[in-house]
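Lecture 7 notes: from sequence to structure.
We start with the chain below.
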Amino acid sequence: MRCLVLGSAAGGGFPQWNCGCALCGLARAGDPRARPRTQVGVAVTEDGERWLLVGASPDLRQQMLDNPAMAPVSPRHSPVAAVVLVSADVDGVAGLLVLREQQRLRVFAPEPILRILEENRIFAALDPALVERVAVVPGVALDTGLGITLTLLEMPGKVPLYHEDRAAASAEQAATYAARLEAGGRTAIIAPACAEVTASVQQTLAGADLLFFDGTLFTDDEMIRAGVSQKTGRRMGHVCVSGPEGSMARLAGQPGRRIYFHINNTNPMLLDGSPERAAVQEAGFEVAYDGMEVL
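Predicted structure tokens for the same chain:
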């Protein structure tokens, strides 16, 4: 099983188009420590020819152009055979509209996400005669037909911003999902959003050969201190990396390769050589970057 990181940043990418924070400034200035990143997405293949995407980033078109493995091999062809949706957030579904040019593929998602697509008529741009929507029952293994078995795992999360009560003082809780993928005797779990690393989450993630995990914020109040938002990570449905309840501590000792992705533009672990990068590496984690390949 081969995993290709198409995008490793959180919503807005890095640098974010309307953000003048210190880190975005470094990226715009071309500082080699601040590698630009597009919005999150991972492509997975078992045979090297047919790819399954986890998440459909708004940056998907550029990501496909940037990665030769995503290129067509005939006048009308795409190696993308399927998409797994693990959230209904804009940065997880908007890229579906990139795939509307009469290309056959399957979209795997739980019923609540499929309902959101059905409610929004813009997604009718994907011809139903070519794009099959497949309902996935969380916790039940499904053969994708690509040599990869998919199981959706429920994670603590929140409803998408456009579905929540904007006046609410706290996040409206709802399940988000991680994708457990099995092929060739190996298991990868791709979890771009998790609000809290509970004992149940620890057990759910245990045993994977490879874990891509929510690395949105290094500290819960990071965006507040950066002066770009009044929201905490918890308010957005993302557990922070650091601290006793953070993912770095709560996932310590987990076997397999552990990689942070879905990283916000304010997160200092984006910066090569930063103390925060050193801390996660010392704890046995890696920080994803666009184009990263994991075999």
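Points to note: Residues 2-294 form a domain with the Metallo-beta-lactamase; Chain A fold (CATH 3.60.15.10). The chain has a mean pLDDT of 94.
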